[in-house]
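Notes from the pairing session

We agreed to fold both candidates in a single pass and log them together. This is the raw record for the first candidate, unedited. Please don't reformat it; downstream parsing expects exactly this layout.

Candidate A
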Amino acid sequence: MQLCRSAADSDVVWDRFLPSDYLSTISDSTSSPTLSLLSKKELYHHACHNPLLINEGKLSFWLDKLSGKKCYMMSAKELKIVWVDSPQYWKWISLSEARFPVVARLKVVCWFEIVGKINTSLMSPMTTYIAYLVFKSTHDFYGFDNNPVEAIVGLAGSNGQKRIVYFHPNRQGIVPGDDHGLFPKTRRDGWLESELGEFFYESTDEEGELSLTILEIHRGNWKQGLVVQGIEIRPKNG
């Protein structure tokens, strides 16, 4: 029994569950000095339950607890949001429940577009990832109920996979029989997420940038009250 327990706690065993580049991935995290004192088993469990901020706090990284695959969330600061630096349209705010120091609050805009890019070399090979916009709505949320957006997911420079997405929390059921859109779901952390699309990353032989684009279909319609935390990519069925 003691031998089995020792084997289960062995660094050699748990090292197989950690990505080979795990230590280099977290090297720029402010928590890395503390993490270096943990055993490989402790590291794995910590990585599954405690997302780390890397890339100067603009990227959140953790491991899927079922598969050990790498997961990421790109902060709003890491995204290209049209007019985000214009105070009359967007405002940077801090929320205690957010993973990042600041999030982007939409005040009012008639041109809605968000683009995120992440290097595929950061992802786990032979893995199908799903991308999600992580957001909240405020009391003055307006303009997204009858105005879906188009999400495009694929390698930069390619046509990508396209689909229709709704951000209104109560959008499902507004149009009877409308089943071609994707509707927001409430996350365990209290935020909402809308699925943007899938991407299969096969191997390092196809390194490039995964591009995630959200485009307004009917430009000119005023919108407000959306709070964007970021875009998350995680393994399918993870």
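Candidate B (folded immediately after A)
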Amino acid sequence: MKVLGIESSCDETGVAVYDTAIGGAAGLRAQALYSQIALHADYGGVVPELASRDHVRKLLPLIRQTLAEAGLTTADLDGVAYTAGPGLVGALLVGAGVARSLAWALDVPAIGVHHMEGHLLAPLIEDDAPQPPFVALLVSGGHTQLVAVDAIGRYRLLGETLDDAAGEAFDKTAKLMGLPYPGGPQLAKLAEQGVPGRFKFSRPMTDRPGLDFSFSGLKTQVLLAWQGSDQSEQTRADIARGFEDAVVDTLAIKCERALDATDCDTLIVAGGVGANARLRARLVEMCAARGGRACFPRPALCTDNGAMIAFAGALRLEAGQHEDAAIRAVPRWDMAALPAV
């Protein structure tokens, strides 16, 4: 089954074709991604209306490009998958409208994919992917969640952030220290030059039981440290390193607790922050010390992309799940409500 995947939940337009007949990493026939970073940089964040309009401009050319790179035409497609939510409603409607229209014209099934399920399943695209049960850490600009995955489509939320997501905290912390948009990757790069331990910040909510997260207080600590410092470039780097170490330690501590609580030895990590090199190294080390395994998608599949939507949609379409011709966008969507595959 050859499935076209469309991602348009926020500020990146992603398109991919996944072929279940080939499977694994080789099943990803082609993908294309257009980022709107330059468009939103002047505003310091995503402007929903501008994002929607840019998806309108970029989506059809990206579909043509992806099909050409895959050596396919629309007539070769067996199904269409699109991000139905969560996300910005206007942006979601652009992808949903194009996907449903294409599926109707081709008389093939279509399915709306949960954005976070796409992230969760992205590591399973790789050839050495684990199979459930496992624990998933979904860590991005909009979400920080620990999920017990009993089977594909059977998810139990173990813990989530009570305020800022980890990626959001990275971006906001970078902004308050004067780093350009998008700040998260800039802060992580700057932290490589920082002196470990010069600035020590708390590991939020690790001194109490439970698997929830909170990063807003950590952000405030960094602000106070920055305002009270000499604000030199080296100090900026040292504070960035202290902040990153605090986030990485917090995520690792909570992940280990989740593995203990579920009696699992496999952790998968997905979402944009999953590309962070220090986080990857720490979680690999933690899981190996337990005799377990930490799995990640390739860095290109950590951020929003069409490949994860094509793959997640293909799994559900192959299982016989599809939808009627209605165009649906669900800005808020509980992943636990998804049907099992």
